[in-house]
Amino acid sequence: MEFGPLTLAGTRWEIDRADFDEELPNLLKLIEDCDFIALDFEFSGVGSDPRRGQVDMNHKPTLAERYKELCESAEAYRIMQMGICPVKWEPNAPREPKYSSRPFNFFVAPHVEKRLFRYDRAYLFSASAIDFHLKNGFDFNKLFSRGCLYLGHQEEAHIKGLKRQRDEADKKEIEPKEEDLPMLEDVRSQIIGWIKRRESDPFDFLNIQRDAGYNGYQRRIISQFIRREFPDYNGIWYERHLQVVPYNGDRERNIVLKREDDFQKVLKVQRGVRHLIDKIMELKKPLIGHNLFTDLVYMHNMFIGDPPEDINDFRRFLQQSFGLIVDTKFLALHCKETNKNSASSSLPELGYRLSHMTYPHIDDFPVNTEQNHVAGYDAWCTARSFVKLSAILYFAGSDNPLPPAEIASCLDSRKEEIVAALATRPPKAGYGKIVEVELEDKRKVRIPHWSSHFWKVFGGRICVNGTVEGEFTL
Fold it and tell me: Please, one GO biological process term (predicted)?
């Protein structure tokens, strides 16, 4: 089954704020239909301490120490750009079987709708990040002028709490100040006069206004004054004036419902790109990244909320909230075609080393130029590397990875699972030797099935270079 004709297909791969709401249904449908999703982020900074370059080079941090540092970093800095690449296997594609890919790029702006109680955010950059992104052509003007919105779950809960506080406060009466009494008396006299002449007045409402206008506090005390003194009437506020009308229960209920509906619509718009993360989590689609430990921590902070303090709680969150997570860095370091050293497993280098490999075939990037360090392009590169690397490792064989070095009771059963899966995989022999796979037609070569023992060995294992353990295992 193909993705089908979509306005998002072809060369249009960057979605900005003006188009996001219109294209969201198509984006969600792509996520729903795909086999897996590759993800990449670009950050406004990494590392919570400005003096990070002065750390003791003789100290190799533990995984827990690196996690704590990244949590502090994710609190200070933000995701500026998000790339996703849904990918689907098309066995009946017109020319030959292939993986159909649809990469998208989103600048992610910090703006928050003013109607959400003027909730605000701090937005920090590190000088080194600015320098890096400028050298790679990052458009900071586009980030702020056209970037898509977002709203984390924790932020949304906070904003809903602010709304509840406001609603409760609106129900409570406050005592007017002495200087406000003449204003209330003026309102009283106008309403009494209007009530007396209502039979002869052609208009069934009264507009009250003054040159100085009314601030929020004055509007509140006038509204409660009318409710108390004139229970058969109601005040409706407009931008510059108050309109007094006879009380109508149905109208008042509709006003309350409309206010709630408007609030929910603003929330939906503000959620922005979080809709995509929520959909991936809901469907538990396999999630592919390159060296993605940092991405996962930042993603939690931006779209969920404060990451758990304990790394094992973070591990459990990922296990419960996502499907299979695969790190192409881990695959590359165990692939004889690419594992000469850690530098050779960088994403651009991987692309070069795997460029000779025709199958499995995956769609080319929709723009005929390299876009290194652009999140949407890097997400597509990650998807391509994943398809090629997993096929090499599965069919051609490799050195088997060692069991995880992490010491945690929650990993005991996972380690046993990996050891058991490794026992069925002859070193360097490749699964093609022990399973029934027809390889005469190389065009039909695919990544291993998600239920394969291959993913027990190579899935859920994330490189964290420079740490004692070197790996974060799910």
Answer: nuclear-transcribed mRNA poly(A) tail shortening
State the pLDDT at residue 342.
53
- Among 379, 358, 448, 353, smallest CA distance to 95 is for 358
Q: How many angstroms separate the CA atoms of 159 and 164, rounded?
A: 9
DSSP string, 66-89: HHHHHHHHHHHS-EEEEEEEEEEE
| C-alpha 136, offset from chain centre | 23
Under 8 Å between Cβ of 353 and 338: yes
* Cα–Cα distance for residue pair 276/366, rounded to 1 Å: 21
278/286 Cα distance (integer angstroms): 14
Helix axes 249-271, 274-283, angle to 10 degrees: 80
Q: How many domains does the chain have?
A: 2
What is the share, in percent, of the chain residues with pLDDT greater than 90? 47
Rounded CA-CA distance 359/345 in Å is 20
| Distance, CA of 89 to CA of 2 (rounded, Å) | 8
pLDDT in tens, 28-44: 999 999 999 999 999 99
Strand partners, 106: 82
- Residue 370: what pLDDT? 65
- Under 8 Å between Cβ of 386 and 328: yes
Tell me: do 165 and 99 sit in the same domain.
no
Global confidence as pTM? 0.85
Domain boundary residue, one of 219, 251, 268: 268
pLDDT, residue 340, reads: 54
Q: What is the pLDDT of residues 339-354, one digit of tens each?
A: 555 556 788 788 778 8
Q: 360: burial class by Cβ within 10 Å (0-12, 13-18, 19+)?
A: buried
Residue 6 identity: L
Question: If you average pLDDT over residues 448-456, what whole number do you get?
Answer: 90
8 within some domain: no
Structure token digits, residue 275: 């809709």
- 413 vs 419: CA distance, rounded Å: 10
